[in-house]
Amino acid sequence: MNRLILYIIIHVIGVATAVAQIKTEEIVIYNNNIELPGTLSFTKENTPLIIWIHGSGNVDRNGNQQPFIKANYIKQFRDSVNKYGVSFYSFDKRTANKKNIKSLKKGVLFEDYIADVQETILHFKKDTRFAKIVLIGHSQGSLIAMLNHTNASKIVSLAGPSMSADKTIITQIQEKAPYLDSITKAHFKELANTGSIQNVNLMLQSIFRKENQPFLSSWIKYNPSKEIQKITIPVLIVNGDNDLQVKVSDAQKLHASNKNSELLIIPKMNHVLKVVNSVTENQNSYTKPDFPLSSKLIQHIVKFVNQ
What we know:
about 300 residues; alpha/beta; two-stranded antiparallel ribbon; about 20% strand
């Protein structure tokens, strides 16, 4: 009995010690008047640091979006890689921080997101505690990672589109509302040529409403399949075969554009990196944080980062 009690005490102390080894720091990085608060977590110094780059929407540092998406996938990712000794930093996207509301009234351009990541990288390049910086760009963030590759040692394109934003949206329209195909193409052509759209079709207002046009105009200038060709540092391209937003074919096209990249397709993983077995589970995983992340994803990321 005494041995059993002693074992339990030692086991509990061991677990507590392991948990205590993960250090966290709350950091606020500024890009002019924009506040980008984030969380740094690490177990020890002289380890690789992952900087997470968000996809579209008002995503916070944990992978949630008000008011509907509560997937918590970035926090799950952070906790998972920290267990393997990999350091991690993620921040609240400028559109997720209420303190930025006044500044955001002027609008947002795609270059603003690029600059936010640049400021974040520069902050950590001055921090001598970490061995190297690895960028993980998720979804829309994949392109932003590519555009910041010169300041990193490696990048990971995680569920990243292979086409420019206009072509991606046109493809989605062709699949879901083919009767709007020609109108969508005409709107994008006008936007590319003039920077604005005078008369937006009522059925396409959610995409092309006036306040969205400057951002779309700045975003469609970049083609991920061309940008990835410029990258000479190691690149890992990852996609799940249950991703309903970005297809496996996108990952394959990116890989074909950079022959030196590594391609990883993960069975049953969806866009928010969860393991799902049905369409219902896929949908539920966006609002319930208890779906597990792909263990294969974590293992491969850790291996890639440490190589």
